């Protein structure tokens, strides 16, 4: 899968994603990441990419031309026009199902805004999806793009080892993960639940499922409501 990120801060995106599991997947060739600096496409001799909004108001806007040219530099090179995701608090809220669906694409372009936003005309021209990562306002689209790329990448075959996969499945089933324990058997007077030491796999599985349900009920009543709708017999 190929990711292209149109941004004024390419180093932030590269540095953030070239570490840990996603960095390993890029090295192994399961993913590729290209951070395209929008400033490189400024037609201005001072490499300016922003200007005042018509009609007045606070702050500066990113101008249409450099954004459009950065987009075109990608689409012309790869010979197609992939989905282009604009990160904005005005978008649809990102979730696990969306990550799974986007992981089926061969390429994705992420457009990161800064300042007070981007000239509406270029958004109309190139954006296919408006996505938010939650109801709060960040200073730019880079962190949301990185969040999305991380979540999408771990759904791409080969990115996670066998041991690392699986952990999403419970979330997809509307349940949170059960609690987990490692050595020692006793720490600060707290013992590992006896059943996990029993070696009885069926009972352990049933215990974990029950813990998942209790935890979801308590911590995410909204998710629990969804679970009950999908499993009406429970
Ligand atoms: N840009 C600024 N805030 C954002 C958010 N919450 N989600 C996506 N993009 C953003």
Bound ligands, named by name, code or SMILES: adenine
Helical content band = 25-40%
Number of domains: 2
CATH class placement of the largest domain: Alpha Beta
Distance between the termini: 39 Å
In this structure, how is the largest beta sheet organized?
A: 5 strands, parallel
**Elements, N to C (H/E):** EHHEEEHEHEHEHHEEHH
Secondary-structure class: alpha/beta
Main traits of this protein?
234 residues, alpha/beta, 17% strand, Trp Operon Repressor, Chain A, binds adenine, elongated, 5-stranded parallel beta sheet, two-stranded antiparallel ribbon, Alpha/beta knot
Briefly summarize what is shown.
The protein is α/β, with parallel strands linked by helices.
How would you explain this protein's 3D organization?
This protein has 234 residues and is an alpha/beta fold. It has two domains: 2-153, SPOUT methyltransferase, trefoil knot domain (Alpha/beta knot, 3-Layer(aba) Sandwich), CATH 3.40.1280.10; 168-230, tRNA(m1g37)methyltransferase, domain 2 (Trp Operon Repressor, Chain A, Orthogonal Bundle), CATH 1.10.1270.20. Helices cover 38% and strands 17% of the residues. The protein has a five-stranded parallel beta sheet, with helices on both faces. A two-stranded antiparallel sheet has the order 3-4. The mean pLDDT is 95. The structure holds adenine. The site of adenine has 11 residues, from strand 5.
């Amino acid at each position: 899968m190929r990711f292209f990120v149109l941004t004024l801060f390419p180093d932030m995106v590269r540095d953030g994603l070239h570490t840990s599991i996603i960095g390993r997947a890029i090295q192994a060739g399961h993913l590729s990441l290209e951070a395209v600096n929008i400033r490189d496409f400024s037609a201005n001799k001072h490499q300016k990419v922003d200007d005042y909004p018509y009609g007045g108001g606070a702050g500066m806007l990113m101008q249409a031309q450099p954004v459009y040219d950065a987009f075109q530099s990608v689409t012309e090179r790869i010979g197609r026009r992939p989905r282009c995701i604009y990160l904005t608090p005005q978008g649809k809220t990102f979730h696990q199902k969306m990550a799974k669906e986007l992981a089926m694409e061969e390429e994705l372009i992420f457009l990161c805004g800064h300042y007070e936003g981007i000239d509406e005309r270029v958004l109309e021209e190139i954006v296919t999806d408006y996505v938010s990562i939650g109801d709060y306002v960040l200073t730019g689209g880079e962190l949301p793009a990185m969040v999305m790329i991380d979540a999408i990448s771990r759904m791409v075959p080969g990115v996670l080892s066998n041991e690392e996969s699986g952990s999403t499945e419970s979330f997809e089933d509307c349940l949170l993960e059960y609690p987990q324990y490692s050595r020692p058997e006793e720490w600060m007077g707290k013992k590992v639940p006896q059943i996990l030491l029993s070696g009885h796999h069926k009972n352990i599985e049933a215990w974990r499922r029950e813990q998942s349900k209790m935890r979801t009920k308590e911590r995410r009543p909204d998710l629990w409501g969804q679970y009950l709708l999908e499993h009406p017999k429970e």
